[in-house]
Recover the amino acids of this structure.
């Protein structure tokens, strides 16, 4: 059967009711929270596209696996089942479960930074990864290709490293000062954009040339492998498992927020290929920070659910439907004239609010204005990924201007149907018809760091 968008490859056996609110309710809710949708109760949200992290639905097989979980503190059967699956997928030897992705970041970054002046280089650091690099006393540099910033010109791998810039940065900072090169796959900040195997191979070669540790931030490694199969001709007849393994072969360490391609609601992994001394250093830190090394903050139930989820996330029907849903929503928005990151990536549609609302300057947060309007219009919660998120310069305290102003419509896994996505597209299309009336915002109250989550805003007059 020739289908442009694949139907859900599952039957729905359990449902969670969602509530519709009135426009008046939503106006009141927004006023209460100072126009920051992070503070809205999920019960007051109709379709929640804030994040794909821990918001997916588990399968019957995962729920079943939880029933046989072993909750022993040390050396549980659940741990060994998870270890076997992780070894089978990655080929890596040392596993440390952690409570979520940022747990792995905290343990690893602290193990790698021993002195001042150290640097990590990534295609694009995710916010918490950058925060842990900086908390450990190092600096985080990004070197994604320029094509990523041009949302309207398609490029199959907008998540790629700019390889020439990478080598320049290494030489400029001195190879001995580079604590690691971090492959963020897919590249969340740039639009869930994939990184090609050709690019990873080139980056890995440079890392080896200069003796630099290769770290994969692989929260969405399965989606990345699927895009490689779809978009990189040399791998079109490889299995997802083989492509995933090829990705792992090009790294030394795998950090994972399992709340994404692990298909679980909580959990994470820190996996080390063969570096025993690094494993031992991390193990020492994992005990006080996350928990004993055979659970690291995860329950036996969570580890068993993850052991199953990791395999389900590599299945082609699942990955096809997942990426088709993203493409469907992107196609509908583009048909209405709304500019989105093109082609769409793996976990979200990213609206280019800078291009869409040129009348709102970046200092007045155009993407946040859309986020608020979308909640008002239909009770749909998206998230701003732009200058509001970026915050202020830690040294000068001046507001930073982001190179991109995105509204991220993040699709939870196996949770919403195409019909929900129609409601999202219809709401945005209604906003498109009156987009000139959208107003900019100013920050009225903010914490010193990570303001995105708790700052309060007000409309500019
Ligand atoms: N790395 C990437 C690429 C991520 O997208 C995230 C989380 C993390 C690390 C941290 O993992 O949340 O389990 O501690 N991203 C979520 C998001 C929060 O909404 O994009 P975590």
């Amino acid at each position: 059967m020739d289908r442009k968008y694949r139907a859900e490859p599952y039957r729905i056996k359990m449902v969670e009711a969602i509530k519709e609110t009135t426009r008046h309710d939503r106006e009141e809710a927004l006023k209460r929270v100072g126009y920051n949708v992070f503070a809205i109760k999920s019960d007051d949200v109709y379709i929640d596209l804030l994040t794909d992290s821990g918001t997916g639905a588990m399968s019957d097989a995962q729920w079943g696996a939880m029933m046989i979980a072993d909750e022993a503190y040390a050396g549980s059967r659940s741990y060994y089942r998870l270890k076997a699956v992780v070894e089978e997928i990655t080929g890596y030897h040392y596993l440390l479960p952690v409570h979520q992705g940022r747990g792995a970041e905290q343990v690893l970054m602290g193990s790698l930074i021993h002195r001042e002046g150290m640097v990590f280089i990534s295609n694009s650091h995710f916010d918490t990864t950058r925060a842990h690099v900086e908390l450990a006393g190092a600096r985080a540099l990004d070197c994604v290709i320029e094509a990523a910033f041009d949302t309207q010109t398609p490029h199959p791998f907008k998540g790629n490293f700019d390889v020439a810039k990478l080598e320049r940065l290494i030489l400029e900072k001195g190879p001995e000062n580079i604590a690691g090169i971090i492959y963020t796959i897919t590249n969340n900040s740039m639009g869930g954009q994939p990184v090609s195997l050709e690019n990873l191979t080139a980056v890995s070669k440079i890392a080896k040339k200069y003796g630099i540790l290769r770290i994969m931030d692989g929260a969405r490694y399965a989606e990345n492998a699927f895009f490689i199969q779809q978009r990189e001709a040399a791998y079109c007849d490889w299995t997802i498992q083989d492509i995933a393994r090829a990705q792992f072969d090009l790294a030394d360490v795998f950090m994972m927020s399992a709340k994404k391609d692990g298909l679980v609601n909580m959990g994470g992994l820190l996996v080390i290929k063969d570096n025993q001394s690094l494993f031992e250093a991390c193990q020492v830190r994992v005990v006080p920070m996350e928990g004993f090394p055979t659970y690291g903050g995860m329950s036996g139930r969570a580890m068993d659910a993850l052991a199953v989820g990791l395999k389900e996330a590599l299945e082609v029907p699942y990955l096809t439907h997942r990426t088709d849903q993203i493409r469907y929503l992107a196609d509908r928005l583009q048909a209405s004239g709304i500019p989105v990151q093109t082609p769409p990536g793996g976990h979200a549609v990213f609206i280019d609010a800078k291009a869409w609302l040129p009348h709102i300057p970046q200092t007045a947060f155009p993407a946040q204005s859309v986020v608020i309007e979308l909640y008002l219009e239909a009770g749909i919660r998206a998230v701003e990924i732009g200058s509001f998120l970026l915050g202020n310069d830690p040294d000068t305290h001046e507001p930073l201007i982001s190179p991109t102003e995105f509204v991220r419509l993040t699709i939870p896994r196996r949770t919403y149907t195409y019909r929900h996505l129609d409601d999202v597209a219809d709401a945005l299309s209604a906003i498109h018809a009156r987009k000139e009336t959208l107003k900019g915002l100013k920050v009225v109250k903010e914490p010193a760091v990570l303001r995105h989550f708790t700052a309060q805003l007000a409309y500019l007059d």
